[in-house]
Amino acid sequence: MNQIVVFYNPFLPELKISVNGKKLSPYSALMSYQHQRLKKWADSLFAELYREVNSDYEMICVSNDFVCGWLGELAQRNSHCLAFSSRQLPLNASVYERLEKLALLGCEEESDSIVIPVVNASGDKTMTDAVYEILEEQGIFEDISENGILWSDCPLTAIEFKTCRVHDELPYDVPFVIALCGHEDDAIRTETDAVIYALVMGTETRYIKRQGRKVFFSVDPDDIGEMLLDILAEEALCPLVSRLSYNFSSEAMALLTEAEKEELALVCQASPVCQVSIPPVCDMGRTVRLQPRLFPSDSEAALSIISDQPSVLDATDGALHPMSLGTAEISVFLGDDPYPVAVGLVEVCQRSLITGITLFPSSLCLPVGGSNRLEVTITPPDAENREELRWESSDPSVAEVDSSTGMIAANSCGRCTVTAHTQEVSAQISLEVQPEIEEILCPCSFIEVGAGEQKEWRYKVVPENAYGADTLRVLSSDRNVAEYRGGYILGKSVGECRIYVKNQSGSISRELRVTVRKSKKFW
Average pLDDT, stretch 113-132? Predict the structure, then answer.
């Protein structure tokens, strides 16, 4: 049997429909309803679906309670919809929670309240008073009088249900009208272009019918408050959420953190935001596991992958399994959303892959703030997946490494390992980041030595583990007079010279004055 998923996001609005896991053709008549509110397509949906599949079907509705209840009632009346079930939207935050989020993020409040006319179409003058009395007992709204209801607790706007007579001239821009009826055949003669929700007082709450702009519901008086909230959300507040979020001021946006900007991006969403990359190439013998990024990260929405050619590329358990050479289209779906979050063509091929990696040098020292790039040799030299080579540091606080180029940047003193790898092989080196030389300490600045003699003279580096401590330059101004060798000053001939100790850059330099006298020999 055909399975149809109807996914309705009231905040954009957006209607998505899939048949047996595939989205509708762009030429389907149902695509004209893609960005229409519920009242535009609810009554036409089931007939159009039958024309689409030309057979019986079962339906899964993913939306809020109001939409699922409305479509569920229509499904019961349709002979071709043999089964109906409903699920809540993955991001099941109410319209009021979304407005509160906008307020917390710094959205400006609407200057005008939303006015909803309430007319009595029953001819019973006491019905309006009775409905208001019930609403007052329910405690959902405040400030209820014969003139209507003023509700100021709604975030970012105020709501006014205004009592009007049937023949009153209504404002042209009202989002909808509430008509209180005793029977579904009550005449409603109010002149307006807005949709009219006719609430017929009864013993159960359910959708009845639609006549032009009039939508009839039977309402148990105990449900009247919740029904008003549902209609208000669908017709007025959901569009308000969308308008406020997409007109969010640039001044307020500049004050948001990155996390808050992501929260703002989710205000009108009905599903988590998913980012996933589909590789253009898969190699025989290699399993490729897709790595989706979800926001919010604690989302429980399941990821499903579908291949149009399972004999070429099988997609199971969140991974791609090459089966034979060829090309397959891969679609990635999130939860009940019938539209894929990613689609890509993948070629399965047989390439020469990297089987070995050699890094030079095998160990490396760098100063804080220094950088270097290692020499890499791969086996075989003609491997076709060089672009897959990736680099990692075991401790980025010590040294970071560019994941694609392998450039190392030393951040702080310490030790870590730097690894180059593909899916199959890896190699690593040890890296030590050392402090810069702060000082060179000399035991004295003058020394006298006899020709042909030597005296001990050892300098120290601060700190002892400083980078370049073992590569200091020790130079003599006249090597014919004296020179430095392994901690000793060697006198060669009578005269004077200077011994200089410098770091590689020459920024730190110390000197020793040396006098070489004639050697005293005794027989």
Answer: 91
User: CB within 8 A of 455, min separation 6: which ones?
Assistant: 447, 449, 488, 489, 491
**Following CA atoms 25, 26, 27, 28 in sequence, which dihedral angle do they give, to the nearest 10 degrees?**
60
What's the pLDDT at 447?
95
Spatial CA neighbour of 458 closest among 482, 490, 488, 498: 488
| Phi and psi at residue 51, to the nearest 5° | -65, -30
Confirm or reject CATH 2.60.40.1080 for domain 273-349, answering yes or no: yes
Q: Using DSSP bridges, classify how beta strands 81-88 and 57-63 pair: parallel, antiparallel or unpaired.
A: parallel
Q: What is the pLDDT of residues 159-216, one digit of tens each?
A: 999 999 888 888 888 999 999 999 998 888 888 889 999 999 999 999 999 998 999 9
CB 33 within 8 A of CB 27: no
Query: pLDDT of 408-441, one tens digit each?
Result: 999 999 999 999 999 889 999 999 999 989 999 9
CB-based contact 160:113 (threshold 8 Å): yes
Rama region for 273: left / alpha / beta (φ>0; ψ in -120 to 50; rest): beta
Q: What are the two backbone dihedrals, phi and then psi, of residue 501, each rounded to the nearest 5 degrees? A: -115, 120
What is the dotted CATH code of the domain comprising 95-246? 3.40.50
Choosing among 3.20.20.70, 2.60.40.1080, 2.60.40.10, 3.40.50.300, the CATH entry for 439-517 is 2.60.40.1080
> Topology of 356-434 in CATH?
Immunoglobulin-like (2.60.40)
What would the mean pLDDT of 464-478 be, rounded to a whole number? 91
Q: Which whole-number Å values give the CA distances from 47 to 68, 75, 100, 107, 410, in the listed order?
A: 17, 11, 39, 42, 67
Q: Which amino acid is at 457?
A: W
Is residue 354 within 8 A of residue 388, CB to CB? The reply is yes
The helix/strand/coil state of 277 is coil
The bridge status of strand 426-434 relative to strand 363-367 is: parallel
What share of the chain in percent tops pLDDT 90? 77
Q: List CB contacts of 20: < 8 A, sequence separation 6 or more.
A: 2, 3
Q: Please enumerate in sequence order all residues whose Cβ is within 8 A of that of 523, keeping only pairs 6 or more positions apart, or say none.
A: none
pTM for this predicted structure? 0.70
pLDDT at 520 over 80: no
**Smallest Cα–Cα separation from 443: which of 458, 455, 454, 456?**
458
pLDDT value of position 187: 86
The single-letter code of the amino acid at 203 is T
pLDDT given for residue 523 in this prediction? 46
Flag whether pLDDT at 235 surpasses 90. yes
